[in-house]
Amino acid sequence: MDLILDILRDPKVLATIEIFVVAFLVVVLARSVLRRSSLPPDLKVRIRSLIASGAFFIAIAILFSIWADTVRELLVALTAFAVAGVIGSKEMILCVLGWVYKVFSNTHHTGDRIQVGDLRGDVVAVRILSSTLAEVDKQTEQSTGRLVTLPHALLLTMPCYNESQGEGFRWLEFSVPVNDAAEVGLAREVLEKVVEPIHREHRDTIVRRKDELEEGFAVNVRTIEPKVYLSVESGKPLLMLRMPVLPRRLRDTKDRLANDYFRELSVAQAKMTSSEPANLKKEAPSN
After folding, report:
1. Is residue 92 part of a domain?
2. DSSP string of 70-115?
3. Local structure of 165: helix, strand or coil
4. pTM of the entire structure?
5. Are residues 217 and 268 in the same domain?
6. Which of 35, 53, 177, 197 lies 20 to 30 Å from 152, alpha-carbon distance?
7. Final residue of a structural domain among 27, 44, 79
8. pLDDT tens across 34-45, in order?
């Protein structure tokens, strides 16, 4: 206890604690003021990032000036050990540096679905040297049942794609070929009909993630509503549905869309076929 009190009485230690407290309060106060301001979301993000980075670098500069003599002595003593350690454990050091990069860059957490190089899966454990993924097949979007170890050193050389952060949802594109231009109207009507209940199930979650994205990043998502686009491919009409989907619902949504679309299309075509004879009878001239 006396040792701790002696350390806390050191002017350098007291100055260090004060600097961290002041920097933290500046960042918290800035975020609170920006949250209540009427500035555009992207400008809020830029100002908040600028203040946080500025406070961090100013605090580091002040601390370096305070502890310069102590750090210099420590570095001289550790130089010989550092050279030997780097040569003998390069990969392990890179993994530790990758973990530091992960912490400060917020690349992934437990439960996120990520892809680094050819490794793709759901993060089930995060340690200092590596993360463990439950592998997900790229084509089927389903778990393969295998666990894959991701060395954190890969984060230093490869981009980490996080499907659970960022927008927090994926944009699904579902194409429907149409045989004849006369059938485009019916196909579009059926497609818009079947997508509406599917989108409604997860709309609140997607809206919440959209708001979190615009609050935390300089991103403006125009709309999250499904939209059907018409194009021509190989001389035939092609309908393309674009809609937001939760990352783990991508495969199930595709399957449900296909089943519901063809079922409703068959029902609509049957109704049109059954109504044609009646229309012909009405139009036939009486003798």
Report:
1. no
2. HHHHHHHHHHHHHHHHHHH-HHHHHHHHHHHHHHHHT---TT-EEE
3. coil
4. 0.52
5. yes
6. 53
7. 79
8. 888 887 776 777
